[in-house]
Design goal:
The chain is mainly alpha-helical. It has helices spanning about 5-30, 55-70, 80-110, 115-125, 130-135, 140-145, 150-170, 175-190, 195-205, 215-230, 250-260, 270-295, 300-320, 335-345, 350-365, 375-395, 400-425, 430-460, 470-475, 480-490, 490-510, 515-525, 550-570, 575-585, 590-600, 620-635, 645-660, 670-685, and strands spanning about 45-50, 55, 75, 210-215, 235, 240. The protein has 28 helices and 6 strands. Strands 1-6 form a two-stranded antiparallel sheet. A two-stranded antiparallel sheet has the order 2-5. A two-stranded antiparallel sheet has the order 3-4. Helix 3 packs across helix 4 (about 115-125) and helix 14 runs parallel beside helix 18 (about 430-460). InterPro entries: HD/PDEase_dom, HD_domain, HDIG_dom, Metal-dep_PHydrolase_7TM_extra, Metal-dep_PHydrolase_7TM_intra, PgpH_phosphodiesterase.
């Protein structure tokens, strides 16, 4: 049994060894593999990226291409456009004005000689601004003056539309000639006479000018926007860098160097991360073992069971991971629920749930496809659901077949979890894929149940761990020792059953193992079968043999029954906990009746001769049986067991045992003793309740 001051020292070394085992098994799941590769050689195998990292060189190249693809931004000057259109309007308006003035002069003076073409050009220039008169030739002006009003109006409309359209598109220095040609082409398609066409072409050379100017701010902003739209080029963990037989180009070589698979020195940081993870898990396991050792009075065998189950479970996961890939999903077959079943049956439900969490975390690393830095969350969820389901479905275990029955429920939960993964996935699955993966879940549940049933006796025998399943087997009335007790000492058998009922209720009230108390109580007086007639509950229609014996001899016979029972239990290879209950259930109590009887004849009698040699109870369950054994016998002796008498006897017996130091070695607290006293009283009141006194028939 653990001593509180020594339990940590006993737990820490095995926990450290377990952590080292975890570290070794997960080593290759976080360590990056390196390769000896030369440029322009052929890859001997397919190499995947062990990490997720940005390819900064490729990102920079794409950003540069995006920036270069942005055309220069130009700002079209509306002032220049409006100015040139005004010049055209001014020219045609000046021509109209010239003819109006000529008509007025001819009306005022009919003797005015006609003007020559040169004179007309000179007068027209006087009506035009200097920019127009300086740029247009006299021949162009004379041509406009020689056209009819209809041709001029049509020319004005066509030219202004063509010029406005060209200027609105923007005219830059490098495309001025193209813009002029576009206007000239529009004029040529308008069927003007040759002279007017030439004049309009001359006007186009004057009015079509640069009006689109480079805008640095807009261009710079557009390039910035283009650069921000480029997403970083990421190399994902698990992404194929080069396939087997493919040539190692400079680009591929740089990627291999970037992800770190060409380094001759291994990266130590993943190992540090793994060490930290293992240290945290191991610390939690050690704390949980220490807490259970202190609260539930574990022995070293139960700690060994936890560690051995952990070793088997992690090895099982590691072996399965070697055959698991993204295509086969074999992790669904892993019978991970075996660990949860064993933990619950051999130890406790709380330790089963907590260890399930630890195993699931470890599985996320082991099943990461040996991609450093990756965690397979899907496996972790599946394993956790499987183990929690196993613990929940084993709520009422009466025999080993309960494990097989729970396999059916686990199968349904496995299938539901697998369907959940399928429906949440963006990948397309066929009905055959669903059937295969669902079958994996069923196989996992069945394997878990079978392995648990097969490994349970192994743990019970090799480690001596007493499971609830074993206790249920020992509680079967057909057990040889119980049949012997029933046939040879029926009174003791009935007494043992009563003590079992009361003890179980009291244990459950304080959180102790009620099943252990019940089974231990069944066997605690098995030693009375050696000489059953010397115990009063078996003396039916016979004189008490002790009436013919000395008190000292009687005491020797009574005191020997716990140790006779322990010897019988050892011969039948019973669990140590049951043997200890049989040996310790009387502690070192005093046989007061025979002691006082001997003292009447021999005042110098030694009290130690009438005390049980012990040992004192070490377990809570044994201490409770010790109390219930005395209480049941005392209450049975009452002729009229009222509630007040029961409470007085129970409190008196507990008080005497505490005062006599019989419970000093047990971990029971005063608060727990108060709860035990109340629970025993309630149980006894229900058993020894008041009964109706039936009237007797009067005699004639």
């Amino acid at each position: 049994m653990f001593k509180q001051k020594h339990s940590a020292i006993i737990i820490i070394p095995p926990a450290i060894l377990l952590g080292l085992l975890f570290f070794v098994l997960m080593w290759d799941n976080v360590q990056t593999e390196t390769y000896e590769i030369e440029r322009f050689s052929n890859a001997s195998q397919t190499i995947r990226s062990p990490i997720t990292i940005e390819d900064e060189g490729e990102t920079e190249r794409r950003t540069r291409e995006a920036v270069q693809s942005v055309p220069d931004r130009y700002d079209i000057s509306e002032e220049v456009t409006e100015e040139k259109l005004n010049y055209v309007t001014e020219l045609f308006d000046a021509v109209d004005k010239f003819y109006e003035e000529q008509d007025e002069e001819m009306n005022d003076d009919n003797d005015v000689p006609p003007l020559t073409d040169q004179d007309k050009a000179i007068q027209l220039k006087q009506l035009l601004s200097n920019e127009i008169s300086n740029e247009l030739s006299d021949q162009t002006l004379i041509t406009f003056l020689s056209q009819s009003d209809e041709d001029l109006n049509q020319a004005k409309t066509v030219f202004i539309e063509a010029l406005e359209e060209t200027l609105d598109r923007g005219v830059r220095t490098e495309n001025i000639q193209t813009a002029i040609a576009n206007v000239e082409q529009t004029v040529e398609y308008s069927d003007f006479n040759e002279e007017l066409t030439l004049a309009l072409n001359d006007l186009a050379n004057f009015t079509v000018t640069e009006n689109s100017f480079f805008d640095y701010e807009k261009t710079s902003q557009a390039r910035k926007d283009a650069a921000t739209t480029v997403d970083p080029v990421m190399i994902r963990a698990g992404e194929v860098i080069v396939r087997e037989g493919q040539t190692i180009t400079n680009e591929i070589y740089e990627k291999l160097d970037l992800v770190g698979v060409l380094d001759s020195e291994r990266n130590i940081f993943p190992l540090l991360g793994l060490g930290l993870l293992v240290a945290i898990i191991t610390l939690f396991i050690a704390v949980e073992l220490y807490r259970n050792a202190k609260e539930n009075d574990w022995n070293m065998k139960k700690v060994a069971a936890v560690l051995l189950i952990s070793v088997v479970t992690v090895f099982l996961m590691k072996v399965t991971s070697l055959y698991t890939s993204q295509s086969n999903q074999l992790f669904f077959v892993t019978p991970i629920a075996t660990a949860a079943i064993l933990h619950k049956l051999l130890l406790h439900e709380r330790i089963a749930i907590k260890m399930a969490i630890f195993y699931s975390i470890i599985a996320t690393v082991i099943f990461n496809g040996q991609i450093a830095g990756a965690l397979n969350v899907e496996v972790g969820i599946y394993f956790l659901v499987s183990q929690v389901a196993a613990v929940g479905l084993l709520s009422n275990v009466k025999d080993r077949y309960a494990i097989l029955k729970s396999a059916f429920g686990m199968s349904l939960i496995h299938i539901a979890t697998i369907l959940l993964f399928i429906f949440l996935s963006f990948e397309k699955y066929t009905w055959m894929d669903i059937i295969i993966q669902g079958s994996f879940g069923i196989i996992s549940a069945c394997l878990a149940a079978v392995l648990a049933m097969g490994m349970l006796p192994l743990f019970e025998s090799l480690l001596g761990v007493l499971s609830d399943m074993k206790l249920l087997q020992l509680s079967n009335p057909n057990q040889p020792l119980l049949k012997k007790l029933l046939t040879e000492a029926p009174g003791t058998y009935h007494h043992s059953v009563m003590v079992a009922n009361i003890s179980e209720t009291a244990c459950e009230a304080i959180g102790a193992n009620g099943l252990l108390a019940r089974v231990g109580a069944y066997y605690h007086d098995i030693g009375k079968t050696v000489r059953p007639q010397y115990f009063i509950e078996n003396q039916v229609s016979m004189r008490n043999p002790h009436d013919f014996m000395s008190p000292k001899k009687s005491a020797e016979i009574i005191i020997s029954h716990p140790y006779d029972g322990a010897d019988m239990l050892k011969e039948h290879h019973m669990p140590k906990e049951i043997i200890d209950i049989a040996m310790q259930h009387h502690s070192n109590s005093l046989l007061k009746y025979f002691y006082m009887k001997e003292k009447e004849e021999n005042p110098e009698v030694e009290e130690s001769d009438f005390r049980y040699p012990g040992p004192k109870p070490k377990l809570k369950e044994t201490a409770i049986i010790c109390i219930c054994d005395s209480v049941e016998a005392a209450v049975r002796s009452l002729k009229e067991p009222t509630e007040e008498k029961i409470e007085a006897i129970v409190s008196g017996i507990i008080r005497d045992k505490v005062a006599d130091g019989q419970l000093n070695d047990s971990p029971l607290t005063l608060k727990e003793l108060t709860v035990i006293q109340f629970t025993i009283c309630e149980s006894l009141k229900g058993i020894f309740h008041s009964r109706i006194q039936y009237p007797k028939e009067e005699e004639n």
